[in-house]
Structures are given as structure tokens and as C-alpha cells.
């Protein structure tokens, strides 16, 4: 088989003796997603529920493409860690064309094989603890803007869409940390960087959805026609932004051991082209602002929804995390147990990336219920982290928000990660590159808001929370609405 998209007959799994739900033409087992009725994670979760406890993985069809859905966390770990060399590429890589979308296609997330290895090695040193620490003053500046914005808006007596303001925060943080630019998210109605960022990742527009559909159903089209997702104006905007950032930094006397200075060194050392520099910036921007803003929004939502957790956290923040000048104590923030439990419990319930799709890069045989099953090169293997995170075999009352489930006597967060049942950042060699940056900006935002404001959920929030049908990330329909009251 040359690629995972080879059209195959629906008896593919039956012939090979692997359990699989019955597919139906033309959508296979993902009718909900293809007809726009529900997010694909709900189709996958239905399959997961049907086969939970029965087997360690099953076959299923996305339209006419056969894929594997992992059920057991042991197999998930095998795919992501132990047999990484057999599954080292993300399936999404095949959707982007390097020439048509140079900014997105240079992101490690979508790169394959040696190119991925090289780019990942290039970016990794940018995230050392010293560099992260040197970014914190920039984060603190934005925290001040965040707090002042909420104070200013409170008299309007309207609920806050916490997603929207969390996105203002992360957009300002990320633009300041990479592009050295103030994005003006809290002051302008439609700040340009944010708008451009939105357009860069707007895969939910009807045009982009159509392109995705075409590419997944007729992948061979790419051979004849290069399909681009990023509009030209957006492309140019980010190249200019990065150029300006580099020029300004080089002209100024600022000596900061941050991400931009690292990129400037890299540019000199490796003779990087402008497009490579811009792509580095865009990688940080695209991977950093939306994912973290969702994490912050869900943390604040869950804290607002549970007065007990809110009061317990506020007390600990005031007693342990703030110094005599009213500043966050950076080192303590990073290692604070309860805050870390809240972070992980939030991402257990609301993993921002809901499943990982790895492409089999080298044929391998796995045992499934005592029978061998050969996973062919090109086949996609899907790990539905959303379902594993909510499996009652691993979590008591899995739909409830209980940060204490990660208490030390239960082994702490680490134990759940080791068992492969908690993977909000993925695992193995492709684990999220920005994890520590994400933890830093998310925890800081939560501390600042919880110490200054009393939070409660406003009825405008549509319950039960439901993931939007066409969303790529875990985004709930209708927004997350909170009331916020200043603490005197
Ligand atoms: C709470 C926020 C975040 C979450 C939940 C998150 C989650 C993830 C996940 C699940 C993956 C895939 C891992 C895998 O396939 O095993 C990933 C990859 C990645 N993330 Fe994050 N991420 C977050 C924030 C960030 C930030 C802030 C950055 C950059 C500053 C970033 C950069 C990346 C990159 C470059 C990859 C691709 C890694 C590779 O394929 O080698 N992420 N992230």
C-alpha cells in the first residue's frame, strides 16, 4: 500500500481477522463527522465505547479509508513511544504542501522523517528553563493588562466569554515573546495579529472544510493540483512581522536570552532564509496561542463551576504563591501541586487535541487478542485520548472534575502519565515541544484571575458542553460564559 488513503474494500478488516464495527458506504464509520452533524471525536468515541474491555485495538473506516483505533493505553504507548520508528509521522502531514503552504508545512507537527528530526532539533533548545524564565517579565506585563481589562469591563454587567479573553491574553503573550510586538488584544476591537492568526488556522471556514474533504476523499488530487490553506496576505503579514522583529532587535541594545535571540543566532549559524524564520515564529504563534488559550479558558470554567476548588486554590495562591510585593513567585508557581492537579484534571476532561493520528512508516505486526495483525505501511493509527481520559476503568466518576484524584497517595500526575492514561501533550519523541511554555503561561493566568476575581458560570453557557462539529481543537459550541466579581 503506498499511502493510508488507498481506497480499500469494506471487508479489509474482516478478511484479516480484526474486530471492526460495520462500515456503511459512503462514510464508513464516521457518518456524523462527514455529514457535519457531530465532531469526529464523537464517532470515534462511539467505536471506543462499543469495543472497550473487548480488545486492545480495532479497525474502522473514515469514508473508504481503513484505519486503526487504539483502545488499550499499552498499545497507545507502543505506538507513541516503544515503536516510534514504525509510527514517526503525523497523518495530517500529508494534507499540507510545502510549496503551497510554506509557513504551516515547516511546523514540526506536520513534518515527516528526517525533515521533522532536523526541525525539532532546531527548535528544542529555544525552550530551555533559562529562556522560559527570561520570558516571564513579558508574561507579567500582559497579566497586568488582562486584570485591568476585566476590571474595566465589570461595570458593564455582562458575562465574559472566557475563551475570548483567554485568547486575548495568549495572543498578547505569544506575540510579545516571539515577535517582540504588542498585539493590542485588550485595547483594539480587531487586533491585526489576532485576525491574521485566526485566518492562518481557520480550517473551519467552508472553503477550508471543502478542501479538507476533497483531500481526504480524493488524496491523489495533490499530485495534479497544489492546494493551499493560508491566504497570501496572511503569509506576507507574518514574514514582514518576523523581519521587523529581527531588525528591531538587532538595532536595539536589548540583550535578552529569549526565543527571538535564539532564532537570530540560529539564522546566522544556519543561514536561515526569511521564510524559515517566519515559519519558526508562526509555529510558536499557531501552536502556542490557541491551545493555551483553550487550556486557560477550561481551567477558569471548571474553577468557576466548583466553589470548593475555587476557594481552596485561592487560599493556597495567597498563602504560597505571592511574594511581599504582590508578585507571583515563578519557581513555586511551576511546582505547585494543587495548581498542577487542576491543570491536568482540566486537560483530562477537555484535552485540547482530542486524538493523535500516527501514520505507520514501517510495517509492524501487533498481537490483538492472541492473533497477529499486520499494520501496513501507510495505514493511520488513531489514539483517541479523549476517550481514554474518560474511561471509568482508569478514572472513578470520569466526567466529574476532581483535581484531588491526582493526589500523591494515588501516585500523582506522573503515575497516570506513566500508565498512558493521561496524555494531554502526547508522548514519546513527538511530545509537545511547547509544554513547559504552555504550563507557564496558563498557570500564571489562572493565578492572576483567581486571586483578583470571584468566578461563577453564567447561564448563557450551553450545557451540557458539546464540542463543535467542525472544530479541529476541543472547542465547545456557544462559548464559555462566566460572571466575574472583583475581590476587594
Ligand atoms: C495547553 C497547551 C498545549 C497543548 C494541550 C498542546 C498539545 C500538544 C499535543 C497533544 C501535541 C502532539 C503530541 C504528539 O503527537 O505526541 C503537540 C505538539 C506540538 N506542540 Fe503543543 N500543546 C500546547 C501548547 C503548545 C505551545 C505553547 C507550543 C509552542 C510554543 C506548542 C508547540 C508544539 C509543537 C511544535 C508540536 C509538534 C511536536 C512534534 O511533532 O515534534 N504547543 N502539542
Layout of helices and strands:
Blueprint: H1 12-15, H2 31-34, H3 40-51, E1 57-62, E2 65-70, H4 73-82, E3 89-90, H5 102-105, H6 113-123, H7 129-153, E4 160-161, H8 162-179, H9 192-200, H10 206-217, H11 232-251, H12 259-270, H13 274-305, H14 307-321, H15 330-335, H16 337-349, E5 356-359, E6 364-368, E7 371-375, E8 380-383, H17 385-389, H18 412-418, H19 435-452, E9 453-457, E10 481-486
Parallel strand pairs: 2-8
Antiparallel strand pairs: 1-2, 3-5, 4-10, 5-8, 6-7, 9-10
Bound molecules: protoporphyrin IX containing FE.
Describe this structure in words.
- This protein is an alpha+beta fold and 488 residues long.
- The protein has one domain (12-486): Orthogonal Bundle (Cytochrome p450).
- Helix content is 49%, strand content 9%.
- The chain has helices spanning 12-15, 31-34, 40-51, 73-82, 102-105, 113-123, 129-153, 162-179, 192-200, 206-217, 232-251, 259-270, 274-305, 307-321, 330-335, 337-349, 385-389, 412-418, 435-452; strands spanning 57-62, 65-70, 89-90, 160-161, 356-359, 364-368, 371-375, 380-383, 453-457, 481-486.
- A hairpin with a 2-residue loop joins β6 and β7.
- The chain is globular and about 65 Å long.
- The structure holds protoporphyrin IX containing FE.
- Residues 80, 108-109, 120, 283-284, 287-288, 291-292, 295, 347, 352-353, 356, 424-427, 430-434, 437-438, 442 line the site of protoporphyrin IX containing FE (HEM).
- Protoporphyrin IX containing FE binds at residues 80, 108-109, 120, 283-284, 287-288, 291-292, 295, 347, 352-353, 356, 424-427, 430-434, 437-438, 442.
- Keywords: Endoplasmic reticulum, Heme, Iron, Membrane, Metal-binding, Microsome, Monooxygenase, Oxidoreductase.
- This is Cytochrome P450.
